[in-house]
Amino acid sequence: MKELDALLHSQLRLAIMSILLSAEEADFVYLKEKTESTAGNLSVQIDKLSAAGYITKETDNSGTKPRTICRMTEVGRSAMHSYMESLKSYFMGL
Amino acid sequence: MEDKNISEKESLEIISNMIRQTQNQTTATSGNTFIAWGLIMAAVAFFVSIDCNFLHLGICSWGYVLIPILGITYTFIAKSRQKKSGKAYVKTYLGDVISTIWECTFLVLTLFPIAMLLHADQYSSEALKYMLFLAMFIPAFASFITVKMLKVKATFYTQMALIFSLNFYAPIYDPESPNIVFALVSILSLVIPGYLINRKAKKDNI
């Protein structure tokens, strides 16, 4: 079995990446609602994923409040693909 | 959720759960747009019908120009209100495909009449009157594809029946009195599916 990516093998980070896998972009409020996490914790995890190059985040100032928009990068997409391949090989080996 | 390690089984559950929730989110944002555009189309057709038959203000078929004007105004206001509200925002691939289908529908229904009018001297006035039939058929077809993509089973078969009915209606289409039929088709192809899409979103707890 291939080694699971340690950065992705965490409850909150995997949830963020799974949302961004099926969405072109999502804002901080959406990620917070769906993951039912605290703003502080979510922010830290987004920064970790962003530092690894898995996602990008940008601030949209066009509304009344600034909005943080997150998108998955090609690096993140390929990391998720490898992660799911590893999971697949794990379950096939059972 | 927290920053904690998980088992392989939990990983799989998180991935499928988050992907399903995000895909369902498209359903939640589509219903009201359907209802608004459907009501605008039905109201304009009803107004045109009243003018042609009773008021005789001379607006008649030109009244249909109100549909893109009111529709675009609604879409613009709804989008800017959503942005200002600070509510959760997500742009899904499914939503993007559905938006593209409706943008193409809108373009065809806007550009085709303009092109026809620019070359009106080459067509008989009868040919121009058949534009309204096209304006019934294309949105009904786009609506049929949309509900299929959103997996709204309750309205899929009624939409299919509507498309079939419109095919049978084509040979007996009377270009002199299509306004009420246009209003009815708008309600059947947009307003009712819109309510059913909203009901599905509510049922799925989105």
Your description of this structure?
The complex is a heterodimer of chains A (94) and B (206). Chain A is α+β, with helices and mostly antiparallel strands and 94 residues long. Chain A has helices spanning 11-22, 28-35, 39-51, 74-92; strands at residues 23-27, 55-60, 67-72. Chain A has a three-stranded antiparallel beta sheet. In chain A, β2 (55-60) and β3 form a beta hairpin. The mean pLDDT of chain A is 90. Chain B has helices spanning 8-55, 66-85, 93-118, 125-129, 131-149, 153-169, 179-203, and one strand at 90-92. In chain B, α1 runs antiparallel to α7 (179-203), α5 (131-149) runs antiparallel to α6 (153-169) and α6 (153-169) runs antiparallel to α7 (179-203). Chain B contains seven helices and one strand, in the order ααβααααα. The chains are: A alpha+beta (94), B mainly alpha (206). Chain A binds chain B through residues 4, 9-15, 18-19, 21-27, 29-30, 32-37, 41, 44-45, 62-65, 67, 69, 83-84, 87, 90-91, and chain B through 1-6, 8, 10-12, 14-15, 17-19, 21-23, 83-84, 86-93, 96.
Descriptive keywords:
heterodimer; A: 94 residues; alpha+beta; three-stranded antiparallel beta sheet; B: 206 residues; mainly alpha
Query: Helix- and strand-based class of chain B?
Result: mainly alpha
How far is it from the N-terminal to the C-terminal residue of chain B, by CA?
18 Å
- Which descriptor suits the 3D outline of chain B? elongated
**What class do helices, strands and sheet pairing of chain A give?**
alpha+beta
Which chains make the largest contact? A-B, 39 and 29 residues
Low-confidence segments of chain A: none
Main β sheet profile of chain B: none
Sheet-strand content of chain A, in percent, reads 15-25%
Number of DSSP E strands of chain A: 3
Number of helices of chain B: 7
- Assess the beta-strand content of chain B as a share of residues: under 5%
Counting H and I runs of at least 4 residues, what is the number of helices of chain A?
4
Compute the average pLDDT of chain B: 83
